[in-house]
């Protein structure tokens, strides 16, 4: 039986279905069978049978109840769903109905009932709801009574009867019933087969099964009763809810409030209903009202829902919104779906949420979500790159395969043409000189090859040999046999002798796949013969009459060539790939060691545990005040923040540092947020300040790894008159290029502005092209652009010809030329709309940038920029340097020691607060012994001994030096005064005449030779009077050569004496790496050289280990680039 029950809902309640479980099969009874059913009820009264009660739309068509005050369909508010009955799950439904997906117009919980279903909705007062409940109760009681009657009937029948062969028999007693009293028409919905009609069947039911079924029926009925009570409770709750909402609506309307929510206390992870009084809103005349909002200051789960008019008195509209568990605040506005808004007078509406996250916890949650998203994106990007690389590899392999096939075809065509020409000349005999027997033969046949010794240059030879091959010597020498004399009388005939077992056959085996046999005769075997008969350098050739089919041969030959080319390419590419991977690994390991060294470089003052700071972790900061301005202070306070002091949470509260267990150190613990990329801190003597240690204005900074935020890139522009390798005179050009590359590798943007000299090495400029022109200083300035060493370079070319002089320096008007360039460069930045963070100018030649910027451009479009000025050599352009020192925001020179050496100079002394010494570096890609094409054997620290030995041999040969196992000392440098150049020439002549095989003096620059010198030398001597930085000693160590230097400038900062500087090296995180001396005289040089050479002779193994050690030290721009970035950031503070 299927009974349809339409449950009447109170206002705003969605129609629900009550589905008690049916046990047993009871087909719908037709009118013609009603008497049979009644008869069964009388004879077999039953109990405990449960029916399936399904509320469906069909029922409303069969059994309509007339209701008063019926509202039109869809008149109930769509934003509210009544509380679900106890025991049912609402979480999933609520989440789905909430409409979390942005762009949803109407929440599911507020949707109208589907068109093919009919819902009776009532509008009325409290009595209507009670009447509705009572009517429903009467309906349910009738249904239960009817079900109970049918259940009793079936239970009796099952317990007392067995159906068998069309008769009903009681257990232990015969009984029969007419067939028409047990015939029931069934329904497929209740599992009956053949339309559920039971005809002429006997029923036999086991008593135990009957008891189990009866118990199950009883439990089902109890469940139905429980559900019925829950539904009654729900209706009562809905009644209370309705009353509370009506009271709230009346109160808010009377106070002029146009908005309220229910429940009034909004909790996370629950549903609320938002009510708006349209008549009090700016949307009073709008037919459509929507709510648009999000949570937590508009940062989480945006939504848009349509409001529906409610039953409440007044013009109240409402919708339902699900508040997510992460919410602490709900932000929203109302609008008409187009351009009319009610946004609370531009302040937006908001509701505070209880029980969710607070703002800080939510932000951390967002960071974790962002972190997971970034990890996912990184994996997707890695996979995309992998697939792209795989596709590129396949395409490259395809192109290479086609190229190899083309090369194989070309080679075959060449060979085929040559062989065909030979075949035309080939024969089976020649002019009483040689002949073959038999005349017809093929590959692998044995033939006799006769040679008339008296016919040629071997007439006097005592021994004769044949050196042969085939197919134009394709496989080289493949036939080597000794000839024996024949008994023929018509000449001095000899033939090849090859033995097989005990029988002598005077024959030659014809090679397989041979078209032509090639040979010469000689007076001995290969490597021993001195006289040949090679047919006047034409060799001898005999065709093979029955050789392999020609076309088949050439197809096979082409395939063999193709396979050979493929294998050669594979091996070549594997070698290149392995070398590239090793190079990348060495660079990465070196960079990692340098970063660690950078972090430990201040360990005597400050360090962290762990050393590698990870976002989201807790770290301990250790500080030693005895080495700072806070020495002797009774208290030390930690003051810090993150991300260059720009973190959203601002500075951390001052924290009093506690004594640590390691001597004078004090410590503080810091929680690192997930969005940190840099730790920033200073130290003070009091909580409220007092004396500070802020690292001379730079502050202390430690990079943070693994965060979701990345440091915003800076834009740095170098304005310089030199740049390697296109316009290089000295070290300035190397610094500009190498520093720019290193900073760019750290994900910052770098541009260079350079004069367009007519002597530029444009072959090193990629994609050089004219870009634009502008006028300044009474002349047109053409702007060119190109890429140099991966860097963007803008070339300025004044059309007045100032840089068409054929040189970089040396003109009488150099000051005027470079002044024009500096002014033109700043004008270019302004007119092009550039807004760099840092403008970096170098030495006297581009120093005018500093004051021109401050006087003319700082207040006219370039206010964001800061100027950094670097002194490369104080000996030139002192006036310009002094003025640039005064105007720049930060100033540097090329080594810490040189900065101290010149700190007393009046040009510098008054600006020491902004003056820093940062060591230069070398470019590890230019100076790389593992990839250097100018040396005979590439090497790393692992095979430094073998590599340097090969380079020394090549250098000795190149310079004409004696080849001996002696220490090789090289002095590299330049004369500080051109007037003494002749003295060096005279010295060179003297050395060459008196020590021709032991000494050489080369007075020229030779790029390949310089690489070979660095690799082949045992020692590099740098006895400089002064040296601001020095690159010679750094390059020497890169190639495993040991530096012997005078203690001045940058030489002091890079070469640590193996006997005297162990502690100094340790403070820098290094080991001793060379020899140095103090005096600028022969005695000082002798002292250092004697110790170095003695070490070479007395401890070769130790010396070799020192070479390996210096190769593994990093003198690249890895660390200087980090120091310059610190300086750039401090300039922007």
TrEMBL record:
<feature type="compositionally biased region" description="Basic and acidic residues">
    <location>
        <begin position="91"/>
        <end position="103"/>
    </location>
</feature>
<feature type="coiled-coil region">
    <location>
        <begin position="565"/>
        <end position="592"/>
    </location>
</feature>
<dbReference type="GO" id="GO:0019252">
    <property type="term" value="P:starch biosynthetic process"/>
</dbReference>
<dbReference type="Pfam" id="PF16760">
    <property type="entry name" value="CBM53"/>
</dbReference>
<dbReference type="GO" id="GO:0009011">
    <property type="term" value="F:alpha-1,4-glucan glucosyltransferase (ADP-glucose donor) activity"/>
</dbReference>
<comment type="pathway">
    <text>Glycan biosynthesis; starch biosynthesis.</text>
</comment>
<feature type="region of interest" description="Disordered">
    <location>
        <begin position="385"/>
        <end position="406"/>
    </location>
</feature>
<keyword id="KW-0750">Starch biosynthesis</keyword>
<feature type="domain" description="Carbohydrate binding module family 25">
    <location>
        <begin position="444"/>
        <end position="545"/>
    </location>
</feature>
<feature type="domain" description="Carbohydrate binding module family 25">
    <location>
        <begin position="269"/>
        <end position="354"/>
    </location>
</feature>
<feature type="domain" description="Carbohydrate binding module family 25">
    <location>
        <begin position="616"/>
        <end position="705"/>
    </location>
</feature>
<feature type="region of interest" description="Disordered">
    <location>
        <begin position="55"/>
        <end position="139"/>
    </location>
</feature>
<protein>
    <recommendedName>
        <fullName>starch synthase</fullName>
        <ecNumber>2.4.1.21</ecNumber>
    </recommendedName>
</protein>
<keyword id="KW-0328">Glycosyltransferase</keyword>
<dbReference type="Pfam" id="PF08323">
    <property type="entry name" value="Glyco_transf_5"/>
</dbReference>
<dbReference type="InterPro" id="IPR013534">
    <property type="entry name" value="Starch_synth_cat_dom"/>
</dbReference>
<dbReference type="GO" id="GO:2001070">
    <property type="term" value="F:starch binding"/>
</dbReference>
<dbReference type="InterPro" id="IPR013783">
    <property type="entry name" value="Ig-like_fold"/>
</dbReference>
<feature type="compositionally biased region" description="Polar residues">
    <location>
        <begin position="106"/>
        <end position="121"/>
    </location>
</feature>
<dbReference type="InterPro" id="IPR005085">
    <property type="entry name" value="CBM25"/>
</dbReference>
<keyword id="KW-0175">Coiled coil</keyword>
<keyword id="KW-0808">Transferase</keyword>
<feature type="compositionally biased region" description="Basic and acidic residues">
    <location>
        <begin position="129"/>
        <end position="139"/>
    </location>
</feature>
